[in-house]
Amino acid sequence: MLVVSKTFGAHPRVISNSTSMKPFLIILFNFIGLGVFAQSYHYEQPETLNDGWESNNIRLLLKDTTILNQLFGQLYQGPNKLHSVLLVNNGKLVLEEYFNGASIDQPHDLRSATKSIRSMLLGIAMEKGFINSIDDSIFKYLEQRPTKNLDIRKEEITIRHLLTMSSGLDCNDWDKKSAGQEDKIYKKKDWVQYTLDLPMINDPGEISTYCSMGAVLLAEIIEQTSGMSIDMFADKYLFEPLRITNYTWGHTSNKEVISAGKRLYLTTRDFAKIGQLVLDKGKWNGKQIVSSEWVELSTTASAEITGMEYGLLWWNIPFTDGEKDIPSVVATGNGGQYLMIYPTLNLLAVFTGGAYNSEEDKLPFMIMNKALLPNLNY
Predict the structure, then answer these.
(1) Longest dimension (CA), the chain
(2) What is the span of the domain harbouring residue 197?
(3) Each residue of 110-121: pLDDT tens digit?
(4) Is 100 found in the same domain as 48?
(5) What is the average pLDDT across 268-297?
(6) Distance between CA 267 and CA 84 in Å, rounded?
(7) Can you tell me the distance from the alpha carbon of 140 to that of 160, in angstroms, rounded to the nearest whole number?
(8) pLDDT of residue 56
(9) Which CATH number do you get for residue 135?
């Protein structure tokens, strides 16, 4: 079986069980097969609120609710660093639980999962005519130009290269020696200029390395072409149609951060709406918010990063129900922020957590692979 383990920045890479299985995970999942006592848990169907979501009972989805009761009894007993778990099946909420002081109306720092939402915004920017093509040079839209490490290949960097993290710039968040590693850039005065001034170490499109600054450049392009800050653009074209109002943009840096560099804080329910957009090919309650063509293109693998399939700021991570592989589209963020979308099952899962830079942020993958996916009544 494949599980997902941590790399720098807590993004996914597939490795063997023996490497990633931690004692707390063994303890957590032993009870599923052995019937180990766990604290009492009583399932309650998610409440229907005035936020666009309807709910349904998870008992219609599962083969055996005993596993659910054991799992969440153990999770509530702890210890763990989960903040929320939410499941949506056939467009309806079927499970919603909060842990460790988190609550239904609390926006959560999505960290790098914000990148996948930036991909949605880029698709909208194209549909609105602000951007012509993802195969255009980024300098067709950016006002700033490189002033250092001048290289003709920089003119060949396209929007697509930023989306697939294959710009060729020396920008690798998972390599502390990289000049463009995100923590180094957070200390700089001008993030955009510093990124454009990075040396080229590959031809554009040749190799994909995980580069957060590429996503910042994409947000900057949306801002400069639309004349709107990224938060205003997102509010007008994405959040307002989705009835998302309880959100903020921020960053962990102590310095003043440009709007293009800020990350999203969303509630778990609102984060799930992004996943439902993917499942419904860009529609929310029958209204087309993002083009179906962009949803298909952006969520289909077109690159590889450390052996994992990568779309346009979306991961394609393999899951299993114990018998067969289940394809997925996933947004990931440091600490355990995950939007896991299973198109063939019409199912999505949302997890938030506080396991920053920790192996424990992979607990959601164990929950899905070991407990929930094998128990689906399909």
Answers:
(1) 65
(2) 113-230
(3) 999 999 999 999
(4) yes
(5) 97
(6) 10
(7) 13
(8) 97
(9) 3.40.710.10
